[in-house]
Recover the amino acids of this structure.
């Protein structure tokens, strides 16, 4: 986005107001991402602040040929991983993709089973999706949130994670199908 | 035609397929009730996921971030602390005066008038003392050359009655006394500095 590049240039020239505009633009999408990744609101708010502080501190290392949002999400993703490391969660659940897990592939073709999502009103369905997200493996949760909550493109996601686009598409697909399965399993 | 690959179905629903692929999937959906039902199910899931409520950003969140990236400069903090000290001193003075006026049984207006009177008298005394001191300094400058002249005349008279050897002995003794005095004075200062540290 040209406007982002302009705000970055102005910030580097010492215009704090320009960085404030960046914060205002990205605080909501970042909180939506970090909050759904961590599940704890206060921790998510702290981490979001940290992401902006880190971004401000390393703004000179940002290369304008890339999208600013991609660069910011990369910082956020690394901060989320660091946060889990500090909590000493098993590393496999943080960094490994679902492609590393045996027997994780969902069914690839439609079946005749009755609808899962039609059982709920839209509002209830949203609440159940939010609850089921917490049960998804981290890599799938991140892929799902970026794609369907933050509205990132597959190209952006591949760039952020440094993965082939096919891998990213497959992660998003697996996330959705596992989520659908979780909706079925969660108690009503 | 066999049923659709679900991954492809999702990409179709997201508008990620090229035109030819999308046409082929659309044609299949028109003829396959199983895939159509699956598509409707996934479409609903995507619609719900795409409209999940935003997490609330608390008020003042942006300001907190801006404060973290630009803390108040040191100079401003020093100025603020000086202002704080001045304000504290003014507050202490006001409280002391208030208490004093209460103890003396005076009303606040009366206490203020008393204070004004006291300040005016102090100022007048200070101006008087300063004027006298300056007069004294001017007088000192006037009589200093006369004193110096008298001192030189006395010295001349003394040298005329004391032998040259005695003069050298006196000058040497005076020099030694001055050197010793300088040495002890310097030592005392060093000891004082050492105690302060």
């Amino acid at each position: 986005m040209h406007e982002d590049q302009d705000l970055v240039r102005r910030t580097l020239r010492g215009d704090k107001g320009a960085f404030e505009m960046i914060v205002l633009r990205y605080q909501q999408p970042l909180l939506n991402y970090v909050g759904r990744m961590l599940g704890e609101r206060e921790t998510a708010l702290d981490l979001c602040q940290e992401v902006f502080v880190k971004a401000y501190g390393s703004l000179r290392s940002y290369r304008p040929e890339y999208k600013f949002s991609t660069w910011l999400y990369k910082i956020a993703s690394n901060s989320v991983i660091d946060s889990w490391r500090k909590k000493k969660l098993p590393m496999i659940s943080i960094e490994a993709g679902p492609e590393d897990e045996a027997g994780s592939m969902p069914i690839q073709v439609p079946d005749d089973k009755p609808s899962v999502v039609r059982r709920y009103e839209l509002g209830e369905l949203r609440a159940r999706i939010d609850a089921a997200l917490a049960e998804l493996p981290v890599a799938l949760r991140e892929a799902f949130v970026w794609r369907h909550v933050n509205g990132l493109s597959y190209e952006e996601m591949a760039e952020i994670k440094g993965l082939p686009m096919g891998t990213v598409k497959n992660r998003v697909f697996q996330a959705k199908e596992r989520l659908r399965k979780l909706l079925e399993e969660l108690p009503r | 035609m066999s049923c659709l690959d679900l991954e492809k179905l999702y990409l179709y629903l997201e508008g990620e397929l090229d035109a030819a692929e999308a046409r082929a999937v659309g044609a299949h959906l028109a003829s396959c009730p199983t895939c159509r039902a699956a598509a409707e199910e996934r479409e609903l899931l995507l619609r719900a996921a795409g409209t999940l409520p935003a997490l609330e950003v608390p008020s003042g969140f942006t300001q907190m971030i801006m404060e973290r990236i630009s803390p108040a400069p040191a100079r401003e903090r020093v100025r603020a602390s000086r202002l704080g000290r001045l304000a504290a001193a003014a507050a202490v003075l006001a409280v002391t005066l208030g208490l004093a006026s209460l103890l003396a049984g005076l009303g606040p207006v009366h206490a203020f008038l008393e204070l004004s009177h006291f300040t005016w008298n102090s100022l007048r005394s200070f101006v008087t003392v300063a004027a006298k001191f300056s007069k004294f300094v001017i007088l000192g400058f006037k009589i200093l050359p006369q004193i110096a002249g008298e001192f030189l005349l006395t010295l001349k008279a003394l040298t005329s009655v004391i032998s040259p050897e005695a003069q050298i002995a006196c000058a040497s003794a005076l020099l030694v006394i001055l050197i010793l005095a300088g040495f002890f004075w310097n030592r005392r200062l060093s000891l004082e500095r050492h105690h302060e540290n």
